[in-house]
Orotidine 5'-phosphate decarboxylase
Amino acid sequence: MAVNSPLIIALDYPSLDAALCMADQLDPAQCRVKVGKELFTRSGPAVLEALHGRGFEVFLDLKFHDIPNTLAGAVQAAAEQGVWMVNVHASGGRRMMEAAVERLQSHRLSTHLIAVTVLTSLSAEELHETGVSASPGEQVEHLARLARQSGLHGVVCSAQESAAIRQSCGDDFLKVTPGIRPAFATVDDQQRIMTPAAAMQAGSTHLVVGRPVTQAEDPMAALAAIVAELS
Ligand SMILES: O=c1ccn([C@@H]2O[C@H](COP(=O)(O)O)[C@@H](O)[C@H]2O)c(=O)[nH]1
């Protein structure tokens, strides 16, 4: 299905039923959906089958991070389940990322492979606490370049870094940005945030939106407000 929207709705729910209840209110021609660690750990591949059966393109957000051989196997397993996009941590290094790219290519799997740079929930102070002396912006850009050199299709970053990555890695390199917060939403545990319209202006190619829609009193009204902001 051709999806003519940058929106990816994060189905962060504790059960398959709850996730499908939200999915059934969404139009697979108008947005993609994201399955993360909680939902996948609870429901397993059944959630992918159910969402694919409803016509959705699925971003499997399991943020793989392991030795090259193990990680390549996990990426292959995800791609063979037909997901549109899967991700790994760029901090796993060049050899790990290249192993995943090679595995997809050798099996002719066309799933988009992207790398998480610096989690959008991390502030500069928290990043420094992990032993990284660079600022979030510097570290994101460093890891984005590494991901691009390793053959990946793009990165997960905050929209605050999209413009710099567009400059260094180009328009075609995907900038998938969580931490999207419309003016009406609460910040929650995110740190590096941006509104939907500002994120698109900055060069994000995809906007990941979870709680501003899924925890809203009226999720469909919240989604409509975001769509209106983007049009
Ligand atoms: O750096 C990252 C990487 C992934 N995420 C995921 O995106 C969504 C954001 O949800 P909100 O409710 O809109 O905050 C969530 O599934 C995260 O696991 C991220 O936020 N930051």
Observations:
- The chain has a mean pLDDT of 98.
- The beta strands are 7-10, 32-35, 58-64, 85-89, 112-116, 154-156, 174-177, 206-209.
